[in-house]
Amino acid sequence: MSYDLWYWPNIQGRGEFVRLALEGAGIPYRDRAREDGAEALMRDLLARQGFKPFAPPYLVDGDFVIGQVAHILAWLSDRHGLGAGSLETDLQLIQLQLTITDVVAETHDVHHPVGADKYYHDQKPEALRAAASFRSARIPKYLGYFEAALGVNDGPFVLGKKWTPVDTSLFQLVEGLTYAFPRRMGALKAAYPRLYAMHGAVTEIDGIAAYLSSDRRIPFNEDGIFRHYPELDAE
Fold first, then answer.
1. Fewer CB within 10 Å, N side or C side of the chain?
2. What is the 3-state secondary structure (H, E, C) of 3-16?
3. How many Å apart are CA 50 and CA 139, to the nearest integer?
């Protein structure tokens, strides 16, 4: 069994949250656009019928197609035993995953506060204002929320000893925010010991360690969600 993951071939973006869960769990998949190109991705997406995905990433299993990061990860968790195994707790994990989706969207909007159809340099004054608010108010609010969630069980993961896609997603969130706002994240790091303990523990998962040291891990760049513009960062 091998899934087809469709996402843009040159950025981590939202697809990376799915990749990390697949890699950590050792689930076989093909990163199709990295193999066949962005044009193949667009052809595949446009050719789909019915309740097709709005945009990548989406995962294909035979005739079944599922989009939206939190939705994909919930489906993978159920199918591969990556969750808690109880409906109530799994729904709470989905709640955390959807909150990660929220902060990822807010991070993108820092450098594109006017519109995604305009270049960053066309909205730079607005981005400077958005970044100041995001750094001072939103990053600590989100990190504090996740720090508290990691305190519910004896760590290092959200469920305690067992990792889930929420943990790999939080790892990616910390990685992305650190790339985009290294000064701000450096100043905040000491305030969130559980979050950074979880981050370190994720790097020790066998599949994740192998992935991070491979060429399959696309470097961060200024075409993705997490972008480093020095003028948007401050302590």
1. N
2. EEEECCCCCCCCHH
3. 38
